[in-house]
Structures are given as C-alpha cells and as structure tokens.
Amino acid sequence: MTARTVVSPAVWADALAAHELPAMDLPAGPLVVVVAHPDDETLGAAGYLATTHAAGTDVRLVVATDGEAAFPGLDSAGRAALARARRAELDDALRGLGLHDVDVTWLGLPDSGLQQRRDELADAVRPLLDGAATVLTPWADDPHPDHAAVGAAAAAVAPVTAACWAFPVWVCVWGTPGEVPVPWERAARHDLDADAAARKRTAIAAFTSQVGAAPDGGPPVLAPDVLAHFDSGVELFLRAPRRAGAPAARFADLYATRDGDPWDTRTSWYERRKRAVALACLPRERYRSAAEPGCGTGELTRELAHRCDAVHASDFAPAAVVAARAAVDGAGHVTVAEAALPEVAALPAGIDLAVLSEVLYYLSAADLDATLDRLADAVVPGGDVLVVHWRGWPEEAPHDARAVRARFDADDRYTPVVEHVDDGFALHVHRRR
Length: 433
Prior knowledge:
Elements: H1 9-18, E1 31-35, H2 40-54, E2 59-65, H3 76-96, E3 103-109, H4 118-125, E4 134-138, H5 145-157, E5 163-167, H6 171-174, E6 187-191, H7 194-205, H8 208-211, H9 224-227, E7 234-239, H10 248-255, H11 269-281, E8 287-293, H12 299-304, E9 308-315, H13 318-327, E10 334-338, E11 351-357, H14 365-378, E12 379-390, H15 401-409, E13 414-421, E14 425-432
Parallel strand pairs: 1-2, 1-4, 2-3, 4-5, 8-9, 8-11, 9-10, 11-12
Antiparallel strand pairs: 5-7, 6-7, 12-14, 13-14
C-alpha cells in the first residue's frame, strides 16, 4: 500500500468519547465474518469475536484473499510463500484469541484485485452466508479497495434476515473524524477489558510478516504508530443497512407463520401498550379522515375506527389485508386495500390523519423520500402524522427509528407536536404546516 500520514489515535479516542455509543450487541445466531485479508478481522474486531465465541455463538470466518500482495515487489515465488505464511499466521492468531475451532473458508481470490472480481466475489460469498444472523465485514467506505469490495459484496448478497455490520480498518489510521463521514447515528462500540486487550495484542503479533520489516528492509505494513490504533481498548462497529426496501416475499413468509400474526399483535403486551399510547398521543379527540398504510392485522385499525369518521387502511401483504378486513368486519366507514407506499392508494388526498406504525423504516431511501412527499400532498394543512417505530433495527430495514425521525425533523413541511420515547418504541406526531 502507498505510504500515508498516520493520524494520532488520540483524535479518534476523543471522537469516540464525544459520542454516547451503545454497546455492540452479541448476535442472536451464527456470525459470519467476511474479510479481504488474513488479519483484517484481528485488527478490527478481535475482541468482539472472542467475546461472541466465548458466549457460545457459532462464528465462521471467510477470507477472500491470502494477502499475498502486501509487498508488491515480490516475484511469484515470493508471493506464494507469503500466502502460505499468512494462512499460518491467521491460525496462530485465532488460537491466541481462543478461536481455534472457528471454521475458516479461504476463497483464494487475488489480493488487491477484488474490485475487478466483484461478481465472482459475491457469487462465492452468497452461499456461505446462509443461516447467518449477523454478517460482519470491513467497512465498505474503508479506503483500501479490497475492504470496500468485500464490504459491498457481502452486504449485497446477505440474507434479508441477517443484520449487516462493518468495522473500519485503515480509515481511522489515515483520516481524522473531521475528514471521514462516520455515520455515528448507526455506530456501536465494544470495550475490551485488560485480558481481552492483551489477547488482541498477542494475536496481532502473530502476523509476523506484517509487523516485521518488509522483505526489502523497508518499514512494516503494521508499524508501531499504526498498531497503536488497534490497541485503544475499543472496537468501533457501523451498521451497514440494506439499500433496497424490505422485499414483499419476506412479509409473505412472516404472515405464513404463527397463525398469521408474526408479531403477536393481538396478544403481546408490547403491541397492546403501543396501541394504547399511540391513541392517547393523538392530539385531537376525533378526525374526519385517516389513512393507515402498513396496517398489518388491523388491530390498530379497529381502534382508530372509534376516533375517525373514515379510515382508509392498507398493506402490501395480501395476508395482512385479509386479516385486517376480518378485524374491522362490520365497520362500514373503514376500508382495507392492498397498496404499498408511496402509492396514492395508501395515502389518499384530503386526510387529516396519517398513522404509520412500524412501517417507514422498511422503505428504500427513494421510497421514503417519495412517501414524505406524498404525505405532504395527502395530509391537509393542520392535519397530523403519527409515526411509531420499534427502537431496535429490523434486519430487513434500510433505516432505523432515529433515521426516520431525522427526516421529519429536517423537513419544514412538518412541525413536531408530540413526542414519546421509551425503551421499547419511539412515537412522534408531526403536524402538516
């Protein structure tokens, strides 16, 4: 790699201290780590991987290249020898972390050539992600092109049911927080205790080809000032959200389970309490005409019917439409249609209330933009928009509650009038100006 100026680790330590980041959660199922080179996972995530594995999680590692191009001046024989050495170094590093039984898949793709082999990389990675609850890669915005290629490829082919996370490697070494557009709003941290930090140092030292002098006597790839960045006691992780909206097939699969009520909307205290709080937060006792896109099983629709002269409910899942129609059977002022945001049928013109409960974060960025525009056209001035979101981040969703709220706050067509935030969900009412 081309020599660059190394940033002081203290700059990043100050940035981490300035942001109250949540702790990185442990995966709910198998964790598949996809990296470009042997040592990426150790540098960026060794502490987290060791903690996750010790907690009993099935951890699997996929390494795209052997790292044979770390020293471009080597001839073919030298590169082959380096490739063998780096595979052995990874084995030693994993043993030092207590990860000796982790399954490692080597793809054998060319080092420093992954950008040119992106389709082949994606095809190779796709089957290895089957069953993953979490996929972890180097950050797709990392300045090393191989890291960027791996991060983008894994996110593109990850199962819709998997949460995708990434860790920075070289971006924090070569850039300052002021130069790097870090998405702090979707960041998390993992803190290493003294023992974990020592194990990580030992694991990094196992990569002798990288921490020692180059074959020509030049400086090592991982010089002391570089290594200081990976010895801070904190590992930074960034959620890598889906780019596309949640696919219809995913919701069809969900509604085919658990008696057609995959979120237990009829029985769970979370759902019943959320409905009660939502109704209590409506600023007006009665509305003339309401729309409820993403109505699901219709439990909230049925209660909205008591507060509105007309309710236009809709969902893009046919099974949800059937369930919602059954829930409001006999209520002549309520209609339930099959429609998806941002369609006009989901948000008809002239409404004075729009209710969007746990739906907006499933939309693609383009559809979210279009939905905010459609809301502005459909809701009469002075009308209300009730938005409710679970405070977690659904695997299928391109956004989380914070991101959607920020979109409304930045839109001068709406003004906030009610806010409720607790451990379970966030609720906001925005009034159309």
